[in-house]
């Protein structure tokens, strides 16, 4: 920055303009913003609008924009279909399992690794590692492990005289899927709980212990409430993720057996790409979008209100 | 000391059990890759009686594994460069200029965080087909970059705002253009934030499955996730070989994790606990 080659008198000339000349300023803003805006409008906003638009048509996805307008027929068909109801039920089951089992488990492990136990850095590294493995690697690995005939899981459990059909049985497919999800994702939640825990001043915890609080009481009345914002974020992320769950299911079960593990995204892909009923599939994606949006708005309005203090715009602004 | 050891013993036990739950599947795959299929079904856990290397060497000798590795790498790098470059320019304007419509545009980008990618996949497919970008890496790169913008812009804007205005004034007085300030001062100062968002973009691209699945039909353009899925279908009964493929496909991701763990965790936790 010290190499100044341009007219030095321009630097000295008082008074310095409060801003660069107006037009130059707008050109700068436009040039900097334009690439991102164009890409975002073209590949994020437009597809969403097209999805909403084409959900009102009977359309096989070919020949420009759809023309065969059928109003809300796709939606009536969707809302009366058994598969859609099942998808929603699977969503509820997976969310319930996540909130009642996976997140408490992640929290417990985070609290455990917050203690000074030997090797905790290694444990942290190992527990989080599956997060960087792709859903496909995870899915293929577990489809082999959970295979009913020669899979490792059954070989292991046969020692105790127990075995399961895992992903091949409609009754056990969702818990099995959830097991794989926990393997892959609990480390992520553990990590953000650990980060949240480290933001709690140790003085608070120590003060409680000096006042005679036991380990459980310290956790219940000091740590847990102060972890509130972190926990609420991780619940939020889990639910949004569950609504669009696709990769793992597609690899592990393809939605089967007989639709018993199908999710909204899997149903949408089936209709959109295998049966080329793009209009109907778009109605499913609109349903997914509305579900996510309504959840996000309601959750942020009523649950994360205290954490966010306002609209989404403040999310990036505050540090 | 004695009481301390007694109280941490159960904690150790839990940590070891959970650790086994995490490690055993990968260990099973690693060892399984060194067995032949008859041994794998009879002896799934123990060390191989004879270490068969053919599963691993066959995969490494096949061109398709390296082709997929190259495609994944190229797409991840290109996606990351594009995402970070466009986001940095936009975040700079959002952070350091006051202009009409700024909040509106920024809100639009942040709202993008809530658009599930799956919702847009059908129109994106149709759009890419119209543009002739199917079976073209560019189709995946551009789309991934577009969906990566919101989070990247949010993180970078936050960082750019934290750099004091005095530095910008000093640079301007020294004759720096806005782009000069951005390129020569702001970006070098923001290196930690840039590293964080880059790592997030690389991981996201590397693991992406849905988009390459619909964009790439020709085998030559497949990325690793597509290759693995296809390999499983092709060698369905050859479990040992699939396990070897999985392990080899894990290696780049795990090396990357070992190198970039700090940035990855920092980025994810900053994204999740900010506010």
From TrEMBL, chain A:
Q: Which residues form the ABC transmembrane type-1 domain?
A: 88-299
Sorted keywords for this record are: Cell membrane, Membrane, Transmembrane, Transmembrane helix, Transport
Report the locations given in the UniProt record: Cell membrane
Listed PROSITE patterns: ABC_TM1
Q: Where is this region: Disordered?
A: 1-20
Instruction: Please give the InterPro entries that the UniProt record associates with this protein.
Output: MetI-like, MetI-like_sf, UgpAE/MalFG_permease
Q: Which residues cross the membrane?
A: 29-53, 88-113, 125-146, 173-194, 230-252, 278-299
Q: What is its main location?
A: membrane
Task: Say which family it is in.
Answer: Belongs to the binding-protein-dependent transport system permease family.
Its name, as the record gives it, is: Raffinose/stachyose/melibiose transport system permease protein
Q: Which organism is it from?
A: Nonomuraea maritima
TrEMBL record, chain B:
Ranges for domain ABC transmembrane type-1 come to 69-260
Q: Name one GO cellular component term.
A: plasma membrane
Q: Which UniProt keywords apply?
A: Cell membrane, Membrane, Transmembrane, Transmembrane helix, Transport
One GO term under biological process is: transmembrane transport
Which InterPro entries does this UniProt record tie to the protein?
A: MetI-like, MetI-like_sf
TM ranges: 12-31, 74-97, 104-126, 138-160, 181-206, 242-260
The listed locations are: Cell membrane
* Bilayer disposition of the protein: Multi-pass membrane protein
Protein family (similarity comment) = Belongs to the binding-protein-dependent transport system permease family.
User: What PANTHER family does the annotation carry?
Assistant: ABC TRANSPORTER PERMEASE PROTEIN MG189-RELATED, ABC TRANSPORTER PERMEASE PROTEIN MG189-RELATED-RELATED
The protein here is known as: Raffinose/stachyose/melibiose transport system permease protein
Organism, by scientific name, is: Nonomuraea maritima
